[in-house]
Target: Olfactory receptor 13G1-like
Amino acid sequence: MNQTLVTQFLILGFSETPGLQMLLFPAFLLLYMVALSGNLLIVLLISSSPALHTPVYFFLVNLAAVDILCTSTILPKLLGSMVAGRTISFGGCMAQLFFFTWSLGAELLLFSAMALDRYVAICRPLHYGALMGPRVCVLLASAVWAVSLTNTTVNTVLTGRLPFCGSNVVKHFFCEIPPLLKLSCAPTRLNEAMAFTADVVLALGSFSVTMLSYGCIIACIIASILRIRSAAGKRRAFSTCSSHLLVVSMYYSTVVYTYFRPASSYALDKDTVVSVVYTSVAPSLNPLIYSLRNTDVKAALRRVLSRSRALCAPRGPATSPLEGGQQAPPRASLP
Model:
């Protein structure tokens, strides 16, 4: 009772290895620039290309928006803490926790929506237009954002109501649930139960839906994919699936490792490295994985670049009225 409540936190970050600061700053700056520019480019390409106005690219735009939200919540503050103060106010910490948890839940649910879209496209191609129409896609995306918003609201409110009256040193590079629970001077069983429940529902639930969808896709291979005569058609059908599975495997493994354990088992050296994967590396790799392996996106990029070059190309000199065989108007005679 004699201790003062914490009003700000000290983000420890990577200060325990100061010799790496000069290497980590440009690395995280590069990751942020790649993630921001890559995801913004995907949004621009899909929005400006009518040929890409399909369900799979609609969900890809949502995924790009989630990655922009995640990296913009974490990396600017991290970069600032490397060159300036490492403190963050209590309200700023809760805001960072809110938006990060929101993006985390939305990304997990979007993976399931994208897996369902691939299942319908490959196993039910004749009914794809009816089953994945614009209204269905909007409803799925709205549900993704709404469910993840509910999850982050509950967990942020529960964390914000905890009393922090001891150490204010967050042994992490941003405000996340496990390291914050370790600083509380009150029991955190309810918080851990809610975080565990959210991880079971969002992470394991979404992962189960994704794996079930791809299990059905594999079962449909002989019936649908192998009927495609051209090799290019088969590659196009598997391209999005392989890219999606690569991202899902990397993302789910790190998230489950972080949130599927009690907060007391949090360790700075191991968990910080794992958190870097789903806060910085994955949002940077998503645009590269989904675009460089996708012929439609590359074709849209070439069209946008060609239009840009055409607009920026210097125009030829304006022709005078006397050029092109035109005769000069007769001069007015003097009176």
